[in-house]
Amino acid sequence: MKRINRNDAILSLAGLLLYLPAIGRYGAKLEVLLLVSLVAGLGVEWLAARMRNRKPCPAGYAAWILLPLVLPPAFPLHMAVLAIIFAAVIPVAFFGGYGRHMVSPIAFGWAFAALSFPRPFEFGWSYPFPCPTSGFGAWTAAMPLVAHPVDFLQAQADVSFSSLLIGSFPQPPANALPAVLIALGVVVVLLRAVAVRTCVAFLVTTILLAVVFPAATDAGILHSLLVGDTLFVAFFVLPDTRTSSRTDAGRWLIGALAALVAFLITRFASFPDGAFFGVLFANVFTAIIDEGVLAQAARARRTA
Known about the structure:
- The protein has one domain (2-303): Ammonium transporter fold, CATH 1.10.3430.
- Helix content is 62%, strand content 1%.
- It has 14 helices and two strands; from the N terminus they run ααααααββαααααααα.
- It has helices at residues 2-26, 29-51, 61-66, 77-89, 105-116, 118-122, 149-155, 161-165, 178-190, 196-212, 221-226, 230-237, 248-268, 275-303; strands at 125-126, 145-146.
- The longest helix has 29 residues, at 275-303.
- The relative contact order is 0.12.
């Protein structure tokens, strides 16, 4: 339990640091969303615990800090609030509280927003402010609106690698400054606050699939990796120790499975970025994969 609390604290601190470039690029609306997410998430946790006659424990604060960072910058505020509330109620409260949830509430909140409000979600992306600190004095960078960052990248012919790294391209708030996201992600991995094998398996499989099955666009592999939710999912969501596999082999398999599902959805479905669907799919099969890995290990011991 001490290690889990430590991991949550590291993820929370890294998430709060991600808000600095996110607010600077996309506006102070993210500050309001952060407050609403904490109040709604912790409030639902408290209410669910009281209804079950348990001692309230605000264990999910890391998820409620990270969730607003995955919603489109120009997404209507009331829709974002609904997505956050449903992410706290359905996968967390209904399953007995945070720590007993089967799927990531961050991925669930993203999926609820994308599926329940498809038009506002599709057109909720905008160019960042030119100055990295302009957002601290403005509500939101709502104009001009653009297509999803992944689609927008594929339509551009002259996007430089450096412009992506410094955040001059439309992005989800979590990836407002990819250089910062990568640096914090590496720190989180080095501190082992997440399941490292799951993170590595997801990234390696994602890159291998992009190499073997290149997209019919001019966007390079590294360009595609820097745009959208892939890096945030790889470092902060999929390898969360509360939802990741409990076995070493299972963590490798879960990371590869999530990357494969994300690739298939991105290439063949109507969603330009399937990273969070990959998370949900992998979360559902985590227990089954763990059971299979443990059963195989037991058979190997009996025959040894």
